[in-house]
Write the structure tokens for this entry.
Amino acid sequence: MRIIQANDYDHLSELAANYLIDKIQTNPAIVLGLATGGTPLGTYKRLIKDHELYGTTYKNVTTYNLDEYVGFLPENPNSYHAFMYDNLFEKVDISTENVHLPNGSAVDLVEECKDYEARIEGAGGIDVQLLGMGSNGHIGFNEPGTSFQSTTQIVELAPSTREANARFFGDIREVPNQAITMGIATIMKSKEILLLVSGESKNEAMRKLVEGEVDESFPASVLNNHSHVTIIADKKALSGVTLR
Ligand code: GLP
């Protein structure tokens, strides 16, 4: 794992955006795996600015998002569909037919999981997967204890994850108990992974990721087994972490 140190959140966002812009310009038909949460927001803002100022085009870019809440229609303002359209897709020239998120309101969720997995494979796999990390080490919505062999699946959200995400809802009772998420094996099949980690609240998770064992009790630790991972982390996230 290559670790790039950023001074602060702004710097992290700038480095991440530049990284992705370079990938998109090198391969305009790139397949990107995208993430939600607070961490990638600054990156998305910069991708939009770059598109407006310098015209980097998303016309031939395909995207697959990591996850979606179960039971939410795409129109639900708290859905990850809405999050992605509000914070990125509506503001660049991507074609909606190239945008993919799991459908959390599918009638047959098991079928939807299989189908999502097949769609990713059909696109030739993900070239670059953007990831955030929960403070309990979750990636996508794969909570501690998830099998490293897991593919796209329905999961129960940990109470700590529901609490952390309640800030987007206003009331924790509104946060769903379940989500549909790419599995750990799905994420690991990506050719390349870019993980963003920011802030003191991720400090302990960052330490476990870098210094700890590779173990299913800490999902992000699996990234140690991938041959092409770049981590961009800010000083607060890295404070006290011994880099190998
Ligand atoms: C959510 C998302 C994850 C994200 C994580 C961290 O649970 N499903 O994909 O990485 O939160 O979020 P944040 O970046 O807001 O800390």
About this structure: Residues 2-180+188-203+216-234 form a domain with the Rossmann fold fold (CATH 3.40.50.1360). The first strand starts at residue 2 and ends at 6. The chain has a mean pLDDT of 96.
